[in-house]
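Hey everyone, long-time lurker, first post.

I ran two proteins through the pipeline my lab uses and got sequence/structure pairs for each. Pasting them in order. The first:
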Amino acid sequence: MGPISTLEILVAESAKGNTLVFKDLYDRLADRIFSYVRSRSRSREDALDIMQEVFVDFWKSLGTFKYVSEPKLYGFLYAIAIGRISKHYRSSRPQTSIEDVEDVLADNSDIAFAAEASRAAESLRRLGDTDQKIISLRYYSGMQFTEIAEVLGKNESTVKVRHHRAINKLQRIFHHG
């Protein structure tokens, strides 16, 4: 058994009802989770609402949650996020909003770049839901295949194969429409 991690201590203290420690835990975890939630939501406002629900659910689950490792902690949070995103949108798929395009334009004044970013987002939406999740978790959240497999409840080799096929499909869609 390895040394106790900072996250493990923060989870244990948060489970005791310490809201100040939970805020620190939130600060350490939120960016990575938000990147994923934002990649799967229609707007920044939706993403912020969903994030709030994710961490409320996490807070409520701390009495029964058992910290095992950092990847398992993130896997647990991503599982909550996936459920919350689904509940928020029911069966509809995320779409690029005008706000998203404006964000890209504000970040990069190159119109050609903005047009390519919009095409890339449209291409991603043409993938199946599981493939969208794999791409989002890999590239928006920077997760390793083992972590993605944990979150999605799939075998790591299955995730790798689906990732490879999704990338190939994205390339075909992006280049050939």
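...and the second, right after it:
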Amino acid sequence: MLPIIADLYTPLLAICCALLIKPYWTQKRALCFIFALLLVTLFAGIEVFFGWWFSMNANFSSHTAVVMVLVLGLLRVRLKAGFMAWLSVFPYAFLMTLLDYHSWFDVFSTMLICLPCYWLFPRSYPQPKFS
């Protein structure tokens, strides 16, 4: 049952993100998601070529990278929903470590590498006004 939950997490998160972002969907935002996903995929390919994680007896978590793109995109559009999605990454990471798919180092290092994707997405929630 746990492997099924682990396999369903990313598609369910993607559906939730799509539903939450739908009112804010623009062509620019769609291109940002595509570009961010291409960047993390490109990085995964570069990692396979150079073997940085492998040299540390670890591996790059492509599933975590996709999840982080979704979460970071959601954070830029719907802050509270994005924060809840970000919190959901930790039980997912625990599940991946429990199933021996990845280590905590794999997950956190992949999350760290994906953080710059946050600035690719346009912001939609109102900004506080300072007077």
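Reply from user beta_strand_b:
Welcome! Quick read of the second one: The CA atoms of residues 26 and 65 lie 23 Å apart. The chain is about 75% helix and 0% strand.
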